[in-house]
Amino acid sequence: MPTVLKMSTSNDQRGFAIFVDIDEAGAHPAAWRASSARPAELVSARWVATSIRAAERAGFTAATFDDHPLPARDVDGPTARLDAGIRAAFSAPSTSAIGLVPVVHALYNEPFHVATQLASLDTASHGRAGWIVAGDPDAAIAARHGREALAGGSADVDAELIDVVEAVRRVWDTWEDDAVIRDTATGRYFDRDRVHYADFEGRSFALKGPALLPRSPQGQVIVVGEAGTRAEVDVALLDSASTTSAAVREAAAAARAQHGPDVRLLLQLEVALDRAGRTATARLAELDAWAPWARTRHARYVGDAAGLGHLLTELADVVDGVRILPAVLDIDLDELGRAVLPGLRASGVFRSPEVGATLRQTLGLPRPANRFARPSEPARTSTGAAR
Description:
By secondary structure, the chain is of the alpha/beta class. The chain is built from 11 helices and 13 strands. The chain has helices at about 30-35, 45-60, 85-90, 110-125, 140-145, 155-170, 245-260, 280-290, 305-315, 330-345, 360-365; strands at about 15-20, 60-65, 100-105, 130-135, 180-185, 190, 200, 205, 220-225, 235-240, 265-275, 300-305, 320-325.
């Protein structure tokens, strides 16, 4: 393992995060042909449990769960998938340290329902939830929700998601942290003066609130969005045409200029590794013969584990972490956990999350203050009286 590079000031207190996507058979369109799971097993609870437990044993910071409201088109193989939010919720009781970060499409979903789903995930996982904000304006998706399709381009989509994220954040804050008093003497479960209405008015919707459940352990779930979005995010997913430090540094500088120094930047990185005497290049050639792995906006690494470890060590001086999308999930996930992460931990580049820590704590992000709380008020006893 190469010498660890000195990390930049922006990374000094936060550590280097490594997310891994555990969707279906993997990122390669023909991954199901190389997977140990049969096609029908890829949409089973067993596969979800196997994948998330492997990711937690390996020590990843968080697992992401990809999703889309419509089945994939023109693909080689299975198109069915389980809802990402359900997979994350299913994983909560069987894990204790890894973050759980589903993709939730929010352009046509009711923001109140999105807020409730994610706050419930945060409560069930004891503070390990995140949310990758997604929105596809496809008219077929709008029709499924009984909505009019959003007219306009990406700017209009982003403007709508700005409203959605703000509405969801307001719902999360409608219960103050000490709103639940459980006062048996008066039969009151909560102090109604500390439960508020969200009262949000957006361009195309309004939301009243309050939430259906008390404020979740993190206060607000970690919100993840693509770099460049104008929505309020805690983590921005960065794309780069190349894995060179210069290319990633240029992309990161542009993202930091927009999002500011407090937003964590994660490079999205597709990965295929050498395995069991076979080179990653040979593995991909075999899969590409079935269905080519088209280049996306994501960076891509194809090679051995040592080379990936060196790349991640270099990237630790440029970004706050990576979101790895394994080519074939069970094969590359095992190789990552066995041959990449241990070396990064030993060199001090990476630390796995601790049991009991929230995802905010793991990422070095503060727990946000409640926007509706009145900080000048004295603390109250269980009966709601001032001390």
